[in-house]
Amino acid sequence: MRPDLFEAPDYYNLDDLLTEEHKLIRDAARAWVKRDVSPIIEQAAQDAKFPKSIIPGLAEIGAFGPYIPEQYGGAGLDQISYGLIMQEIERGDSGVRSTASVQSSLVMYPIWKYGSEEQRNKFLPKLASGEFMGSFGLTEPDHGSNPSGMVTNFKDMGDHYLLNGAKLWISNSPFCDVAVVWAKNEEGCIHGLIVERGMEGFSTPETHNKWSLRASATGELIFQDVKVPKENLLPNKSGLGAPLGCLDSARYGIAWGAIGAAMDCYDTALRYAKERIQFGKPIAAFQLQQKKLAEMITEITKAQLLALRLGQLKNEDRATSAQISMAKRNNVDMAIKIAREARQILGGMGITGEYSIMRHMMNLESVITYEGTHDIHLLITGLDITGENAFK
Ligand code: TGC
Ligand code: FAD
């Protein structure tokens, strides 16, 4: 892959709306991606291997639990800082952002919000430092968009719980040390359980042959009569709202992350268009290419404004789930369209691993599906504005 020459577009001077701390945090993440991610990520994706060597760096830039209080090892930052870190990481690769999203919003968040003080102290500092890596098991082979139908279940055996079932499409599963797993009790109520590697009957086979998120490890979580200690049940929230609350936090991070992927595609295409000569001129001088580039920067700017306003609402604890859905849906759709257009601007070169665009484009095919599909988020907006439930 070519040297990383990324320059971030800021067409509406949005930097003026950030604090000095936001900019410092963002710039540190940006510099780390340039130094430690860009040089290795293409090969990792080609090899379909999660580059574990970047785990300490992710911890160092605060990507594991950015908004988790410092007393538990988190960075204690605000929601805009969290968003900016996700934007910068996904500028490098959506799979790396996935690893950080899962660790922060899907593993640390439920332990922090729904866990006991003992669970927080036992797991959060190790997850923040990257000593432990986590995964989040909600999706099942027969229950993706409709997690309320899950069949993974646990029985109260007196001194422990007995867990049975299987989760599919789980980011980080092949190497996770702990998994936050959602399962039904005997009354059919959903609870979160912390399952630890090494528990008998717990296995995490990897899912191979993905054409997307190749630098992120995806797999299954299989539970065959796993004895889970009672102290591993998350005590402070039950019902489907518990996992969906975690998704709100991760979807918010994705709304920012997708902007990073889009900015990288735009920046690459703009530079290429200025340098590539055809018919005696740079292709940037042709109206058709200018239309593509002008529309890209317009859409990126709109997405940046949406994310920043959502971050302000999150900081004030006023962001609704439906607002988060709108931003996740819009910004991922924006990014995937920009990746496709940017790929065309590079012509044949666009399909090679010399440039990041094709990798972003393939990654975004997962991002538009996970954390609620494009359709599901549209239906969430539809329900919110009409009061009519069109899911069922
Ligand atoms: P519904 O009846 O609407 O809701 C059940 C209960 O949950 C509450 N609720 C929420 N709470 C917090 N946050 C939200 N976003 C919430 N949405 C709903 C709701 O108020 C209710 O509470 P209560 O107290 O009344 O019981 O549930 P439903 O079964 O009709 O489903 C609604 C639907 C379809 C929107 C939901 O199931 C959904 O979002 N489906 C999509 C599933 C999904 O996003 N899965 C993601 C899996 S994790 C993942 O993809 C990780 S990828 C990570 C990476 O690598 O980055
Ligand atoms: P389905 O739910 O079967 O949907 C198939 C199609 O039907 C979609 O187009 C969908 O929009 C549409 N559809 C479904 N219901 C409706 C409806 N009511 N109305 C209209 N259309 C509908 N899950 C986890 O729990 N943890 C993870 O870490 C995780 N990581 C993932 C990583 C990757 C790379 C991928 C691809 C997925 C991951 N997922 C994870 C799972 C992800 O959340 C699901 O793939 C997603 O929720 C969709 O479920 P599904 O794939 O079963 O599709």
Q: Layout of SSEs?
A:
Layout: H1 20-47, H2 55-60, H3 79-92, H4 94-114, H5 117-129, E1 134-137, E2 153-156, E3 160-171, E4 178-184, E5 190-196, E6 202-203, E7 218-229, H6 241-275, E8 277-278, E9 281-282, H7 287-315, H8 321-345, H9 357-367, H10 374-386
Parallel strand pairs: 1-4
Antiparallel strand pairs: 2-3, 3-7, 4-5, 6-7, 8-9
Helix pairs in contact: 1-3, 3-4, 3-6, 4-5, 4-6, 6-7, 6-8, 6-9, 7-8, 8-9, 8-10
The structure holds 3-thiaglutaryl-CoA and flavin-adenine dinucleotide.
What overall form do the CA principal axes indicate? globular
Structural class: alpha+beta
Q: Give, in order, the helices and strands.
A: HHHHHEEEEEEEHEEHHHH
> How many distinct helices?
10
Report Rg.
21 Å
Low-confidence stretches: none
Q: Report the strand count.
A: 9
Strand content: 5-15%
Sheet with the most strands, sense and barrel status: 4 strands, antiparallel
CATH class of the largest domain: Mainly Alpha
